[in-house]
Predict the structure.
Amino acid sequence: MLASDDIRRRMHQEHRTLRALQEDLLDRFEDFCESPDEASHRDMVDVFKEFSASLARHFEFEEADGYLQVVVDRRPHHQARVEELRGEHDSIREVVERLNSELGTDIMKDVPRYSVFKKDFVELMTRFGRHEQAERELVMETFWLEGGVSD
């Protein structure tokens, strides 16, 4: 396992990368909503694939060798919050899979499916934003407020 300081730094960098991808994705989504044509659809698909791949790697890092276990090791009283965050990973993954499936179709010509896609996209951005905020707060409490950064 990585040292807690390395984990904290990597976590910060990954969150920064995901926020940048999220901003790009939001721009592509806005373009797609304004002009749902093949070019904007292709751009949306490309950026969404990059975002979802980065998100998958990020969740794997957190769950396998990342900060979630370090948080519990350092501060066992945060076990319930860590388990809640792990559970959110699964629900976010489900929305990502749904969106990948929707983007794989010609949603521009299917008004009901296009509406579902937009609803699912907003759901993903909302869940992801709340989840990342909760993670940042837990990291700050664990590494900064409860005894400092180093072990």
In short: The chain is about 85% helix and 0% strand.
